[in-house]
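Aggregate trends can hide what the representation actually does to any particular protein. This step matters because it turns folding into a mapping between discrete strings. For completeness, the protein is quoted in full, as a sequence line and a line of structure tokens:
=====
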Amino acid sequence: MEITDNKESVLPLDLNLYVDGTVDIESSCLTIQKVRAGRRTFLKSDYNGRKLSRYIGGKLPYHYRSPEKIGEDFGAEHDALEMVWSLFAQAPTTPKFQNSHCGEILSSIYLEEVLGYRKLYSKLTLTSSENTNVHKMDGFFVKTDGVEFEYLLVEAKSSILPTDKTKFSGHRHGILKQMLESIDGYGKEDERFDFAKIRDNLSASFSEKEARQIKKDLIPPGPMKCSFLGVAVVNSSTVHCADDDFIVSSVIAYPFEFSAIVVDDLAALARESYHYGKTVMDAIAGN
């Protein structure tokens, strides 16, 4: 597969340059009671000749290894080509996992660069082999610009529907239903596990003062300002008012807000994004 970019294009500073509009998600009629806020953000696949897949491809390594660990490898002056190869070593190689991981990573980039949160923890860093998923809350994020820090627990789902083999009957029968089940099934033991994981692996990007506050906040019972967000990455052809009605009106034990990220073709986006890393690995390996 040949992937080319306009050589004269400028690398975007963040995902905001790909945002093609954001709208609130409303119920389709007055008889449907809305119990949560929802928003939908549309992403365009190109910005001034720079593909969205190229932008995401350059972000992938940071979601499998921490920047600090990557920096340590290069700082020790190991074989530079091997260190570049290792950036993508934990990335999935099968379409199934590339699709799901790409959805989670795009959600994380969106939260950081569009909504202004800072990443505390992503479950993808827990993967022990390349083609696996980890069954915990997908990510934890924080805003540190207030007197009290604001924490966000994120459950991300994605769908490549429709496909040649699978017809689309509505996300309310698939990822949206699964999202509700995941959030509703998240218990105190899961929360304690995640809080401890964050305290033990806090990024060096936080200042000493911020790190001290975060570690204090994440001692059970946990912070006062802590909320859930469900994120769904879907194809533009599958946006449907029946799914909107389902996700804004379904009641579960945990209150949460909802965000949808809409792309043209998630499967193609994932395939192209991971292809950049594979090209680099193949070149270094001499294939």
Observations:
- Residues 66 and 229 are 23 Å apart (CA to CA).
- The beta strands are 19-24, 38-43, 46-47, 50-51, 118-122, 139-143, 150-158, 226-235, 256-263.
- The first strand starts at residue 19 and ends at 24.
